[in-house]
Amino acid sequence: FSQLQQPSETKSIIVSLLSRFVLKHAYRAKCRGRGGLVVRSRPRDWKVAEEHKFLLASERPSVRRSGSSACGARDLVVRTGLAGVAAHRRFEEQASSTWIKMFLPDSFQQLFFESSKKRRWAIYAWLIIFISLKQILAVRLNAPRILLPYNKNGGLPSNYTLRILDDDANDCYEWRSEDRHLVHVDPISERAEGCSSAAIVSIVSSSTEKRITKVKAKGRTGFELECDVITDFPFKIELISTTDELTVDSPPESVTVIAKDRFGHQFTSINGLKFEWNVEEEADESVASSDSNVVRLRPHASSPVVDGWALRGLLGHSVLVEPLNVGSCKIRASTMETESVELSTQEAKVHILSNVRVLPSSALRLVRRGTLRLGLTHARRGELESGKDFTVSKEDSKIVELDEKDGAVAITGLDYGEAYLTLKSIHAAFPSIDMQVEVVKPARLEIRISRGGYKMLEEHKSYLVSVELFDENAKVIYPSDNLKVAVSFPTQLFYINSTTSNGTWYVVQALTPGKGVIKAELKGIYLKDSSLSKEYELQNSLTVTVCQKIQIFPPFTLLPSDSLRNSSHEIRLLASGGTGNYHWTIYTNNELSATVRYDKEKSHMGYLEIKKEGDFTVIITDEENVNFIASAKVSVQPVIDVETYPTVVEAEIGNVLILPVAFLAYEDKERKIIRKFDDCSKVEPTVEIIEKHVFIYDKEPHVPAFGKGCRTLQFRCKYPGHSRINVYYGPENGNENETHKTTTLLSCFKNLKPVHPVRVAVLPLGASMEVAFDGGPRKWPLYKTGHYQNLEASNPDLLDIEIVRDPIRYNKDLTVFRVLCKALGENTLTFRIGNEPSATNPHPAKADTSIKVVCSHPHSVHLKLAQKQNKKPKKDNIVKVPFYGEKLFSVDIWLKDSMGRKLYNISSLNIRWSFSDHSLAGVPDSKNGFTTHANAAAGYTKISRDFKELKMTGGTGKLTVKAEVLGYRKDSFEKAGISEKNELKAISGSIDLDLVSLRDIHEDMYAENDGEKQERGEELTNLVDEHSCSFPPVTCVPLHKSPCTRSPVNEL
């Protein structure tokens, strides 16, 4: 096995090796020192095996007879007929592992590899038996044994055609006979190789003894089938036919000879025996005819068993009897058992009747005063006329009355009794026909329903309901035309489609489920004067139940055959309708390929198990009405293609995208109808993610199929972006041409959120700001023009909005707009982002978020000294800031509206600055206004602070810095297109600063050299915002009187 390359070769060798092993060629032998299993082998087999490289010459097993006390170096040797195969005890580990994994389930694989060597051999044996029996039971001949006759009389050899059935591998077989002098095998060549799947078996011997031989068919895989051929001569022959009555000009009737041996066994074929056919005719002299023959025998060339005599235009074992004239005949067939002994059949009598029939019947019963119309019909001419084509006469009787009018004859029953009529042809075209009429008294009536007479009916089906009259002897009375029968049907259950004039025949349709009573009553008989005679009054009723239509769900199921390698398909089918008690049956060519089981107490559920590829039909019938029948088809086919049907292809990071996948197969291969499998959960595809940093493929947990798919794949988003997903499927060990592939595109995006501002922004008139949003669906690569980014205002008249585009922006998920205040008021800005629906993105993702932008006048001014936050704990609320001569410092300014909200971007306001003491500080550029710091590193402009730079000129003392808002800047209004009607009330704000000595800040640093410190003339500047709760007013005193331990020099 280690030298075998293909699994198919391995399987073929196993089947070939063990089919004979299981049947007859193995026997046990005791080995010295260890147990073993020895199978007969011959040196000729070894030689063939060496040629096929299955057995090395140096490894020939030493095999002795059954009584031997020792065995050779190998424990298992199997004879296969044409090629011997040695199964080595010491398999190479890799080859044996592959072999076991190919045939054994996972649980048995674990048992095998964990078992000891002896236990492994036991598993090998059971595995071999299983594979062999499975193959034997699957492939079969159309007849396991046949009985054919000898050819004694120089006729043709009787033959029979053997065929291979249920061979899915489409193997080619070589046929041979074990006794060529008795049986000859002629293969029906269908291929150029000379092998075939059918052969004609013929008997060539003329021996008189019963003999048995075999015909064998051996496939190229080594698998062999056998058919027992029994040869004998017939002991008895018989004639069989469908009827013994024929009418002139009717189609011919087949009469066939069957033969049996002395034990009563019927011969399979006698198409080679020569028969003599004898016909004795008795013609009807009353009928004039140009041809005196009653019948004619013809060869039956189209019989089920091909007759060699019929193909030659001669009479064989089956003939056709063609009726010619009215009369009768006796037919007999015979064959020669020996030269002097004849073997004959019994005579079969056949009656040839006229092709004219009496309407309604030649024998009938009438009620008294009942009337009916008589007629004659010819097979070729149709209906005949009275007086022109025939005459009617009766015996002198007062039982019936004849009334001839307009070429028709009507009879009326006058009194109880029997009457006889004669219908005679005027032109002697047919013999006279006798007719019997019996006038009786009705005793009862019955209601009959078609389709078996069941009282359980099915909705939406049509039924024939008839009312029949019976006499005292339970004989049916013909319903005359003048009868009056009334039938009432439940109107909610039935609809009457049609009826006859006498009310004895109805065509009704069952409407809805329910239970009701059908009532019938014989009212009487209409007389010639149109009066109603109530001589007979009978009635009866019938309770019926209308049931729902019986159905099986699902009616059609398509399953993949590829998954049968791992396990069989198990399907649950549900039945509904009828009475609720069902019988389940499955129809298939191979009984072992599928089975159906059900519980009689819960018969509405049927469980179907399928083990092979093919088409299967499940049929259910109702236990109380066999006419309630329904069927469902289950087809198991190979995968021919794979498709994806994405519904949602975009998702936020952390969420899961569901991708429906459909594996396709032929629903109808002849008409090329393709559809998806109903369940392909056992088919495992290969998934390839191109951008692996964007998605993760989650195999678990299993998600049920939905939409157009029969299997669902799920992918988890972990990074924004797009990625192609390739889904492959191909059979194991298949070539690349059998691999199916489909590709789809999926996308991940960040959660949408506002980043600037986060919630609310307040602006003065004429000022603008950049509004930024991060996240949301990205542009769909296959339809980029369908991407939209919209910012909508609840009151658009108050604002101007424009999008800010930056092609080199690093953050591709950032969307920036510029908003300009034009009028006072509050606005809600809603940002919407997404893609329009397209063929590749039918259900695009959408996201939206909102912020508020308020356009308001400033209400208050606030100033603050710009410095780093002091991390050390404050003492006495004193903040000391070092001063080095003419150093610049800045004062931050911000404005608030009437609700205390800080205004963003005050560049549209005109601000004037002033100082209480110009000797302590001043403005470097001698200009009003302020400076704005903005940062655009994040992809949008964000104002961090508005401030005014001041210059310290020297000295200590108190300094007040004041900022006053004079109004809006004219140039800002002109640029924004705002009228100057918006007047602003002047507002202002100030900050008080104290300049103190540096010695007062760091007393500890200058305690030892106090004099030197004072000579250096250093001063401290204490700048305090009186309007800020964080920086209350402080006072500074000389360092040697009031030490300060806070605010180091480097914390400005």
UniProtKB/TrEMBL annotation:
Pfam families associated with the record: Ig_NUP210_1st, Ig_NUP210_2nd, Ig_NUP210_4th, Ig_NUP210_6th, Ig_NUP210_7th, Ig_NUP210_8th
Name of the protein this chain belongs to: Nuclear pore membrane glycoprotein 210-like
InterPro entries on file: Ig_NUP210_1st, Ig_NUP210_2nd, Ig_NUP210_4th, Ig_NUP210_6th, Ig_NUP210_7th, NUP210-like
Domain NUP210 fourth Ig-like: 455-528
Domain of life: Eukaryota
GO CC, alphabetical: nuclear pore
Domain NUP210 Ig-like: 139-232, 241-340, 645-729, 755-856
Species in which this protein is naturally found: Araneus ventricosus (Orbweaver spider)
